[in-house]
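Issue 218. Parser rejects a valid record. Input:
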Amino acid sequence: MAILKVARLGHPVLRQVAAPVPPAEVTRPETQRLIDDMIETMIEYDGAGLAAPQVHVSKQIAVYAVEANPRYPQAPSIPLTVLINPRIIPLGEEQEEDWEGCLSLPDLRGKVPRYVRVRVEAVDRHGKRLEFTATGFHARVVQHETDHLLGKVYLERMRSLDSLSFLREFLRYQGRGSVIQE
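Output the parser choked on:
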């Protein structure tokens, strides 16, 4: 396994819609290696998630997990999940605005509205169909990661740039809260 280089805002791969992974490629060794490397990279940077475009691979693959992560002491535990070709369906109109960050936009935080409850349809790393409902923080993480697969970053979801802060000032003046730093 390897720790991969993370693309930063401005790199074209972050603005492309990622290509779907054909079913025959899901279980191939090179896809499995990419997934393992993404997981290792996410863990190395204490992230909550990572999408393939963030490691310069324009494919619809995302990984996420929040288990005893020091960055999210108040966040509920979310087991390691691999989503391939995910589809997100909002369940209702209710949204909640909360702080987010991103490994591709280091040292920045901003308040982002997200649906509180979403239906997730995807394929796992073994090619098996996944269907589940995510709520609260879990729903936020899933939406953040799938945005990367659509060529979007959280800045585009912000209602206003008034809350955009550097991490140092955020920690000093806003407190830790439930900040997502992939």
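Fixed in the parser; the record now loads. The chain has one domain: 12-181.
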